[in-house]
Design brief:
CATH topology: MetI-like fold
CATH class: Mainly Alpha
Largest sheet: none
Mean pLDDT: 87
Radius of gyration: 21 Å
Number of domains: 1
Distance between the termini: 51 Å
Number of helices: 9
Helix content: over 70%
Shape: elongated
Order of helices and strands: HHHHHHHHH
């Protein structure tokens, strides 16, 4: 047993700095792409809830265009989107390789998902509350920021966990084409060099990150409720 375990522990200690760096790169990719996709998706969701046929200021034509764009972007498999927008990625960050470059396709992939999830949260808000705000003379802006967002915030928090965990999986996919992070580490050592233990370490860390993200969002949900 010691003869079997010892080389693995030696290799783990040798690769520990790379594992820590890869974990940090993954966290950076997920954190920044989640933030940027929330900003873009939130803006889209507001426009969609305003122009929705049952929204605050119905405009079916604008809503159909937004709905089509969101559905179109969501239909792209991430690995294809990652390759398809390489010129755009290079234009934004100057390179298509590395964790910084991976943030661009991650954001583009997640923004329409965020828009759809937040729109769903807004639609679940009791219409009676909105009508009550209108009866008091609240403007569209006041209804959005003082009624819809506070009422939908607990559900939005849970959906942020969904987005972040999805991006965590996407970030591992981005590692297969030079995106960096734990996915890149698992491919370089676990697949290309047949060091299965390194792949196992990467998977374990990803599982721990998923549990942490979901746990934090569940706690925030309970507090807000």
């Amino acid at each position: 047993m010691p003869d079997f375990v010892h080389p693995l522990w030696v290799r783990f200690l040798q690769k520990l700095p790379e594992i820590i760096d890869a974990t940090w790169e993954t966290l950076s990719m997920v954190a920044f792409s989640t933030l940027f996709s929330l900003l873009l998706g939130f803006a889209l969701a507001i426009w969609m809830i305003i122009t929705n046929p049952i929204g605050l200021r119905p405009n079916p034509l604008v809503y159909r265009v937004l709905d089509f764009v969101v559905n179109l972007l969501r239909s792209f498999p991430f690995i294809i989107l990652l390759i398809a927008i390489i010129p755009f990625t290079r234009f934004i960050v100057g390179t298509s390789i590395g964790s910084a470059a991976a943030i661009v396709p991650l954001t583009v992939a997640a923004a329409p998902l965020v828009a759809r999830l937040i729109e769903t949260c807004f639609l679940e808000v009791d219409s009676g509350v909105i009508e009550a705000a209108r009866s008091f003379g609240a403007s569209t802006r006041q209804i959005i920021f003082r009624v819809l967002i506070p009422e939908a915030l607990p559900s939005i928090i849970l959906n942020i966990a969904v987005v972040a965990i999805t991006l965590l999986g996407y970030s591992a996919m981005a590692g297969t084409v030079g995106g960096g992070g734990l996915g890149d580490l698992a491919v370089r050592y676990g697949y290309n060099r047949f060091q299965v233990d390194i792949m196992v370490y990467s998977v374990i860390i990803l599982c721990i990150l998923v549990l942490c993200i979901q746990g934090v969002c569940n706690l925030l949900y309970k507090i807000l409720r």
